[in-house]
């Protein structure tokens, strides 16, 4: 998409994220910046401000998956905010547009949303020097909400200062910001994947599901909507609508709408999101 540099801001488990990115995307020009305190998405961009050198920047949140024509977006001659229409945007940020379709306000988690256009956590910023000044002003003036700095506040400062920002619509957007949203994203993405192949012949796999080639299934029923990570063992269990992360072991358990962390072992019946 014509990107010269990729900057990834990491915090908790940052070393593992860096290792994963370097392993999977060896040819990309990636640099890493550490956010030592979890002070919000605005602060995450603030700690990477030295990379805002005047060239346009595409800012994408780490808990969102976007499918779209990013190449056309990057070529846009003005700043843009990615949006999608949702039924209930109260836990998200929303945009209010003026009569000409420019962004007038970005409001984080409004109790009374002025529109159903939710911001998806993807922005193209053309004037990155002004963007950097807004980020620095946000932190200097300690503009926090519930203890966090919000990127929307810095962008609102730019808009109030005369920045013209349009929106681009995204039809395929997967929110991963809550357990429920992550499970729904898993369902939606699995529908796009090819049929899963079981690692063992003694288990039944119901599509749509994903089974890592290094996973081992024995005497189990897996799926639908199950994602089984690298090195996972599933023995004598029924796993559906769940995400099992790398090297976990599921033994004689029934899991539904669950998320199991790396290297964890489950030997109990769970039916709630974890």
Summarize the structure.
This protein is of the alpha/beta class and 274 residues long.
Helix percent band? 10-25%
Can you tell me the overall shape? elongated
Fourth CATH level, the homologous superfamily of the largest domain: Spore Coat Polysaccharide Biosynthesis Protein SpsA, Chain A
What is the CATH third-level topology name of the largest domain? Answer: Spore Coat Polysaccharide Biosynthesis Protein SpsA, Chain A
Summed up, the helix count is: 6
* Cα-based radius of gyration, to the nearest Å: 21 Å
What is the straight-line distance between the termini? 37 Å
**H/E element order:** EHEHEEHEEEEHHEEHEEEEEEEEEEEE
The main pleated sheet reads as: 6 strands, mixed
Report the mean per-residue pLDDT as an integer.
91
Report the strand count.
Answer: 22
Class from secondary-structure proportions: alpha/beta
β-strand percent reads 25-35%
What's the architecture of the largest domain in CATH terms?
Answer: Alpha-Beta Complex
Q: Which CATH class of the largest domain?
A: Alpha Beta
Which stretches of 5+ consecutive residues score pLDDT under 50?
A: none
Domain tally: 2
Characterization of this structure:
- It is built from six helices and 22 strands.
- Helix 4 (128-140) crosses helix 5 (151-160).
- It has 274 residues and is of the alpha/beta class.
- 22% of the residues lie in helices and 31% in strands.
- Strand 6 (93-97) and strand 7 (103-108) form a beta hairpin.
- The strands form six sheets. Strands 3, 5, 6, 7, 8 and 9 form a six-stranded mixed beta sheet that branches. It has a four-stranded parallel beta sheet with strand order 11-14-17-20, with no helix packed on it. The protein has a four-stranded parallel beta sheet with strand order 12-15-18-21, covered by helices on one side.
- The chain has helices at residues 14-24, 41-46, 70-74, 128-140, 151-160, 179-192, and strands at 6-10, 30-34, 57-60, 64-67, 79-85, 93-97, 103-108, 117-125, 165-169, 172-175, 204-205, 209-211, 216-218, 221-222, 226-228, 233-235, 238-240, 242-244, 249-251, 254-256, 259-260, 265-266.
- It has two domains: 6-177, Spore Coat Polysaccharide Biosynthesis Protein SpsA, Chain A (Alpha-Beta Complex); 194-266, UDP N-Acetylglucosamine Acyltransferase, domain 1, CATH 2.160.10.10.
């Amino acid at each position: 998409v014509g990107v010269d540099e990729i900057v990834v801001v990491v915090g908790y488990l940052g070393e593992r994220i860096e290792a994963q990115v370097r392993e999977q995307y060896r040819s990309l020009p990636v640099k890493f910046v550490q956010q030592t305190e979890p002070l919000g998405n605005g602060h995450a961009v603030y700690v990477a401000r030295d990379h805002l050198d005047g060239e346009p920047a595409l800012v994408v949140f780490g808990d969102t998956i976007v499918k779209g024509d990013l190449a056309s977006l990057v070529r846009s001659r003005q700043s843009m905010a990615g949006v999608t229409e949702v039924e209930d945007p109260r836990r998200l940020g929303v945009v209010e547009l003026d009569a000409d379709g420019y962004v007038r306000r970005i409001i984080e988690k409004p109790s009374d949303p002025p529109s159903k256009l939710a911001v998806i956590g993807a922005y193209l910023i053309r004037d990155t020097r002004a963007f950097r000044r807004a980020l620095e002003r946000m932190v200097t003036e300690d503009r926090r909400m519930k203890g966090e700095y919000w990127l929307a506040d810095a962008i609102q400062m730019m808009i109030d200062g005369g920045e013209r920002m349009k929106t681009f619509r995204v039809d395929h957007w997967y929110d991963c910001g809550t357990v429920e949203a992550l499970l729904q994203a898993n369902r939606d993405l699995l529908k796009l994947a090819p049929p899963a192949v079981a690692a063992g012949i003694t288990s039944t796999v119901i599509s749509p599901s994903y089974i890592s080639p290094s996973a081992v299934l024995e005497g189990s029923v897996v799926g639908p909507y199950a994602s089984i990570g690298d090195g996972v063992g599933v023995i004598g269990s029924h796993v559906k609508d769940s995400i099992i992360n790398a090297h976990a072991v599921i033994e004689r358990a029934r899991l539904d709408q669950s998320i199991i962390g790396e290297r964890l072992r489950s030997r109990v019946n769970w039916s709630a999101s974890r």
